[in-house]
Task: structure prediction
Amino acid sequence: MRLGFKKLFVYSIFLYFVFNIEGRAKNAPESFADLAEKLMPSVVNISTTQTIKTRSNPFPFQFPPGSPFEDMFKEFQKPAERKVNSLGSGFIIKKNGTIVTNNHVIANADDIVVIVNNKEYEAKVLGEDPYADVAVLKIQSSETFKPVQFGNSDKARVGDWVVAIGNPFGLGGTVTSGIISARNRDVGLTRYDDFIQTDASINQGNSGGPLFNLEGKVIGINTAILSPSGTNSGIGFAIPANAASNIIDQLIKYGETKRGWLGVRIQQVTKEIAEVQQLEEPKGALIAGVSEGSPAEKAGIKPGDVILEFDGKKIKTMRNLPKIVANTEVGKSVNVKIWRNKKLISKKLVLGRLESSKEFLEKNKKSKKLKKTEIESLKISVRDLTSSDIDQRKLDKNLKGVVVTEISFKSPLSFLLSSGDIIVELQGQAIKNTKDLERVSKDIAKSAKKTLLIRFLNKRNQPSYGTVKIK
Result:
């Protein structure tokens, strides 16, 4: 009897633990229908239009860039304009129609149309951040829309159920489900990779759409897939909501981001470097260079230092540091723990702003959107020649002119000029800036002259004269 009692007692304890574990586990829902019905009105389809300008080549071969034959046979190359449509997804975060999506969904778009509950609206860009691939749009309407809320993505665990809603292949209103497959993925897609990996089906057109938890809160922005075929292979990536929220708030408030800036060039601490530095393990970020006048230089940080901790946060690998610095408030006084000469030392510094740094401004001169002026009578768009153009192309520092940025196939100059050429003279008059070109072109349009004489520099900086007939 006593033996039987013991067996019964052990069996009871076993059942207690089994049912207790099962009771606490989150079982798969019988259906996602209620969740989908609730969230669908807040997810939008995004359609963009972009004008692509190309030149068709009638020859069965191409001349190499810089070849003297490239300009010689330019007249045989017919310019063409074509409209390219792209599709993506987004989600509403404010009743006034504020939308979050990926930056790559709307980058360089001429027009943006969003579809909410089968109704089309025009939208404008409030702010975009290509470094984190996040953009914020605003629907051009006074209507009230249904927003969704962000959840705490830090609490999302591997194995949790998630639901993705988006616009794959333009089908719209598509719901898929899966689990979180991994956290903190770095796939080299953006400067601040820290993705949630999911096996919820994500395809082309899902970009910018929301990844929901079972509470119906957004814990990620679907951004990319890993697939040789370009279609779903069960490996999708989403920007964590917590990382995106701060960026979104800044884009809404300022139209741009304000990231922390340290002013260092870093590299990985390898096993060999750790041995030389007598670090117990490969960790931290090795300082390869320090920018002049940067917060790091002012604090006395030097090449060869290894940053192990920043503002109380451990730096496990090199990739950790840029993310932590970027998310730290500009102007904040922070402590930095450094490994130098086989000793741990501390430095204090005041964090700068990345977007105001010299390196950032110089790096973004090429991609910065300079003011373009459309010359309607000539059917071209131009911008002023900048000092950056002069330095980059090694031109005479005293050169003045305008750079051709776009040229319509209907332009009388389409067989003579191409994008990147520099107009320096028109009809014998010097063209120093876009205002000069506007003035001279208006005078020509009013006159009875049928021939244009133009002096320009081609993309190889060779000066040329050309004439074209105008109607």
About this structure: Residues 252 and 306 are 36 Å apart (CA to CA).
